[in-house]
Amino acid sequence: MRSAGDAPNCPSGVKRPLMKPIELGPNQPPRFYRGGAAIAALRGGVPAGDRVPEDWVGSTTTLFGEAATGLTRLPDGRTLRDLIQADPQGFLGPAHTERFGADPALLVKLLDAGERLPVHCHPDREFARRHLDCPYGKTEAWIVVDVRGEAPSVHLGFQEPVERETVDRWVRDQETATLLNALNPIEVEPGDAILVPAGVPHAIGAGVFIVELQEPTDLSVMLEWKDFPLDGIADGHLGLGYDVALGCVDRSGWGADRLAALRTRPAGSDGPAVAPVFPAEADPFFRADRVRITGTPWGFAPGFALLVVLDGEGSLLTEAGDELTLRRGATVLVPYAAGSVEIRGALDLVRCLPPAPDAA
Questions:
Q1: Beta strands 208-214 and 107-112, pairing class
Q2: Half-sphere exposure of 235 toward its Cβ, with a 13 Å CA cutoff?
Q3: Where in the chain is the domain with CATH 2.60.120.10?
Q4: Residue (of 228, 235, 223, 244) closest to 64 by Cα position
Q5: CA distance 128 to 134
Q6: What is the pLDDT of residue 4?
């Protein structure tokens, strides 16, 4: 950390002392489904097991019902959550803290589906406030990094409207084939991005590797658990019972036009070097830019960001003169008080951002 005297040219007006970006190591809590090999391959390591399919990047969120599991810890043992609470404006900036307090309001994951995930959904903010005393639901979005196997796909939203009694029966009797077939299958390829509104039932298919942005909770209602090491009756309803929990399910029909509004496709080699990933409807929940640097440096103004480097090599320079090497698989937290940042080299990365403070 440097003082203002180390950085004579400080156009951003960030309060000193400046903070350094933080390179983050893997943070892979155990989960019930298989996966994790693609995360290890991206990061250049060895898989930590066959049921560590998620890497929680820059996490101040815990697994549902857990006190600490899921939190990002730094090498000295401190949690990122504690560091941010000690200096919220330094990490998050004044506009963000005025709106959200000492909370990044964001969870980023690397997720490698080694098998198809069960059909599930997540409550929205209204449901979470009313039933769980939680300000966040779990709207999420997926950026496809890689795929394996034939016709890799996800499943999203009911094809036709479904009566509540029908959903109740499918879940109660675990009519899993019927449930899955009622959803829209969507083949995906690297670069695709899909916004998944809270409440919409979904499943990620085997062989799909994504960067996921989401609201900072671990709230899931399991509609399917047969053939998975889950006890859905005991654990799949957030402690609410299914009579209440299934009230969060979006039972409306999602036709081609509605689905198309949730999906963006790769821009191609002649597309912009920096482009927003998601539609504006995502801004109250999170934002992301896909960044491709091929020689001309690119920079951004002070602000909290989580960077996921998908390919290439380069460097990140702050206005205080700190430099951090970036390479494939790196995940980096950039605090607001790092000041203006410039990135150089040949890199493909995703810049993940919290919700816009002025978004509804």
A1: antiparallel
A2: 10
A3: 4-13+269-353, 22-264
A4: 235
A5: 5
A6: 29
Give Cβ neighbours of residue 173 (< 8 Å, ≥ 6 apart). none
Confidence (pLDDT) at 360: 62
Report yes or no on whether pTM surpasses 0.85. Answer: yes
**What confidence score (pLDDT) does residue 234 get?**
87
Backbone angles phi, psi at 97, to 5 degrees: -65, -30
Find where tokens 């091929």 sit.
294
Which pLDDT value is given to residue 48? 87
Across the chain, where does the E strand assignment appear? Answer: 22-24, 54-57, 107-112, 120-121, 140-147, 153-158, 183-187, 193-196, 202-204, 208-214, 221-222, 263-264, 274-276, 287-294, 298-300, 305-318, 323-327, 331-334, 341-353
How is domain 22-264 classified at the architecture level of CATH?
Answer: Sandwich (2.60)
Structure tokens at 52: 């560590």
What pLDDT sits at residue 17?
Answer: 61
Alpha helices in 139-248 (DSSP H): 164-172, 176-181, 232-235, 242-245
Which class in CATH covers the domain with range 4-13+269-353? Answer: mainly beta
Pull the structure tokens for residue 64: 């549902």
- pLDDT, residue 205, reads 98
Residues of the chain with pLDDT under 50: 1-15
Angstrom distance (rounded) from CA 336 to CA 224: 41
* N residues, the chain: 360
- The pair of structure tokens assigned to 239 is 């402690």
What is residue 233's predicted lDDT score, i.e. its pLDDT? 86
φ/ψ of residue 317, rounded to 5: -120, 135
What are the DSSP calls for 96-155, one per residue?
HHHHH-S----EEEEEE-SSPPPPEE---HHHHHHHH--S----EEEEEEEE-SSS-EEE
H-assigned helices in 159-277: 164-172, 176-181, 232-235, 242-245, 256-262
**Residue 101 and residue 84: Cα distance in Å, rounded?**
10
At 264, which amino acid appears?
T
